[in-house]
Amino acid sequence: MKRPLSILALAAIAMLAAGALSGAEPPKKPAAQDKAEAKGRCRVFYYAPGKEIRSVEGEVTQLPDGSLEVKKTGGIIVIIPKDAIKATVPLDDEKPDGRKPASPGESPGFESTLRRPISDAEIEELLKDIVAKVDESVVGVKLEDLEAPLALDVGAVKDMFAKAGLTWKEGVPPEKQENLLIKPHFVMIYTSPVKAARQLGARLESVWTWNVRFLRMLRIPARQPSSKLEIFYFGTHSEFQSYSMRTGGPVDMGVLGYYRSDINRSHFFEMETWPPAAQRLEAAKHAAADQAAQERNKVARWVEFQNLEVIQHETGHHIHFNVGLFPRNAHERESSVPTWLIEGTTMMFEFPPTQAGASLGVLNHGRLDQVRKFWGPHPLSTAEWKLFLIDNNVWYSGVGKGNVGASYPLGWAMVYYLWKEHRDGYGKYLQTVFGREEDFRMTNTEREKEFEDIFGVVNDEWVNKFYKFLDSLQLKPSLVPEDIFGR
Prior knowledge:
alpha+beta, five-stranded mixed beta sheet, 3 domains
């Protein structure tokens, strides 16, 4: 499904440069030295106000007073006081090439947005407590089968080349073709710089890895896709739009990336070239130095958030439909699977709180903020919630608001509640819908029974418990993405 801008304003939103740390404590490092010392590219863990641990990465220099200067890609500089530093961990990924923010039509790459692949150790730590006590007789392919490389469909890749307006060189093996990146589970046609494509490829593999771990830890069966998942990555928004117009994809300016289940392909572009962002960068060239730097930083933060959020959401759909978690027609209104379950499950991976990008089980403050500002603390009545849970038409009507975007924060809230308070049932529910054929249909009465057999009757008592949970969630405004386009 296409990824439009967020619900409150249906516009682009930004993310603070430092994400909250989730997972294992990083290793401790020696105390600060007495003189300035260049430490190279590192990730610095530090105590934010309130003693919350956050992290930031970039080129690090230790100043004479023991504080650390972290120069992020794009020129953003963060100073961390000596007494706030928890640890400094060297990074082994490529150093940025120092390019400046893009002018309109230029393509600077993913320097600050796509980081090294998440490691198995990090995944295990992030998901170590995520185990559902569900029916152990339900089994799928082995984990190592899902981790094994998928086959390359050369015929499909040639078709992608033609769709992108690129030339396939006959007689040249796939691994030697220009504009083609082959990863264990993905194949990408790109018009961006090579380095940007490689960084995106690493991000896609990370999303694959921790989605597979999610399936296995909930003991949800899975199917092995017949071939690598297919990705288009365009160097400019204009290329992205031109391709979409030619192939019947979404062309609305607000679409920042999308997965199409009918052709089973995902589509992304370099966010710096999205016209509103490119225009702000161009205007910054003519502003005073301080104001120009501020504008560039705002756009850089917006790009960082959108790249991670959009890619993780759409790639999540791509994976879920290909391993059999949901049928490929699951976004159709008449599908037997509730749309809120499909979207809400994907939104569990949407808002990355760590530099590694994994977010499973972490509160999505952006979605919570949307629920409270757009809907209020208690959005729907019991009868309305029951319809939302069993009737996909309610989702697509935006629960009577006439805007499907209004349904997203409600879908996130329900899945997050089931994940935190009814995890065994959530795992059982996903097992129940797994592997359904596209032509399988259910009535609303059948959907209601399926849900209530697992989670109980949805009555006033049930909804009040849900609202009690929702009320208990503490919103942190500092983690709510910033709307920089005012739409």
